[in-house]
């Protein structure tokens, strides 16, 4: 970015008047780290959404309306496997960021692909869980507990699905253009998003599943 000064021409009838200097900015003005700051603001707004959903489940989590409870429905072994997949995906994404800092494009893409597979596995198991619950008649309309459960867990799963799509898109961009500054910034934003989803899921696993099986 550089500044250049230009002299404005004298107006008619003002011969001999001194021209007024005008300064113009050449090139695009982009605030340093502005993208990361904006993305942090987005994550804070997402925190408010999940906070509301957790609050709703806290109020309605015991409203079974004569239907099944979490202790009767939840398969903690399956949920534990799903949790492991998401936590492992956070670790592999960290490896991808390390390779990105080393400017090793191939290794970065490899770890991103592994992260995407873990994320896809998480979504697959969650869809299996939902399908099983619906097959058992535990649909969202059955009780307030199930409505809040499907809303909270489904919203998180939707975020992970968008994250996987975003990850695949970035892999294509890195494959075409390499680890340029723009792609590194995008990978950094996705990193914050992915780790944020891991933190939220720990809350879901503890607050919804573990507390849900308590008598």
From TrEMBL:
InterPro entries named in the record: Cyt_c/ubiquinol_Oxase_su3 (IPR024791), Cyt_c_oxidase-like_su3 (IPR000298), Cyt_c_oxidase_su3-like_sf (IPR035973), Cyt_c_oxidase_su3_a-hlx (IPR013833), Cyt_c_ubiqinol_oxidase_su3 (IPR014206), Ubiquinol_oxase_su3_dom (IPR033946)
Domain Heme-copper oxidase subunit III family profile: 31-213
GO BP field: aerobic electron transport chain
Compartment annotation: Cell membrane
Residue intervals passing through the bilayer: 39-59, 79-96, 108-128, 148-172, 193-214
Single annotated GO MF: cytochrome-c oxidase activity
Pfam families named among the record's database cross-references: COX3 (PF00510)
Top-rank lineage group of the source organism: Bacteria
Bilayer disposition of the protein: Multi-pass membrane protein
Keyword Transmembrane: yes
UniProt KW keywords: Cell membrane, Electron transport, Membrane, Oxidoreductase, Transmembrane, Transmembrane helix, Transport
CC terms in the record's Gene Ontology section: plasma membrane
Metal-binding among keywords: no
Record family assignment: Belongs to the cytochrome c oxidase subunit 3 family.
Its job: Cytochrome bo(3) ubiquinol terminal oxidase is the component of the aerobic respiratory chain of E.coli that predominates when cells are grown at high aeration. Has proton pump activity across the membrane in addition to electron transfer, pumping 2 protons/electron.
Subunit structure comment from the entry: Heterooctamer of two A chains, two B chains, two C chains and two D chains.
Name of the molecule in the record: Cytochrome bo(3) ubiquinol oxidase subunit 3
Source organism per UniProt: Methylibium petroleiphilum (strain ATCC BAA-1232 / LMG 22953 / PM1)
Lineage: Bacteria, Pseudomonadati, Pseudomonadota, Betaproteobacteria, Burkholderiales
């Amino acid at each position: 970015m550089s500044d250049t000064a230009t002299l404005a021409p004298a107006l008619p009838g003002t011969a001999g008047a001194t021209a007024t200097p005008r300064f113009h900015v050449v090139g695009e003005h982009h605030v340093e780290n502005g993208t990361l700051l904006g993305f942090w603001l987005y994550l804070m707004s997402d925190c408010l959404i999940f906070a509301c959903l957790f609050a709703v489940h806290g109020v309605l989590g015991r409203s079974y309306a004569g239907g099944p409870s979490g202790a009767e429905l939840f398969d903690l072994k399956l949920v534990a496997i799903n949790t492991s997949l998401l936590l492992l995906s956070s670790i592999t994404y960290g490896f991808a960021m390390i390779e990105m800092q080393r400017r090793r494009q191939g290794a970065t893409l490899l770890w991103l692909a592994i992260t995407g597979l873990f994320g896809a596995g998480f979504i697959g198991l969650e869809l299996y869980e939902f399908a099983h619950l619906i097959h058992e008649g535990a649909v969202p309309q059955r009780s307030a507990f199930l409505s809040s459960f499907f809303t909270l867990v489904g919203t998180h799963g939707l975020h992970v699905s968008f994250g996987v799509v975003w990850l695949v898109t970035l892999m294509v961009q890195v494959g075409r253009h390499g680890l340029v500054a723009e792609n590194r910034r995008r990978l950094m934003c996705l990193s914050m998003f992915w780790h944020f989803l891991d933190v939220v899921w720990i809350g879901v696993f503890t607050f919804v599943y573990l507390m849900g099986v308590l008598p």
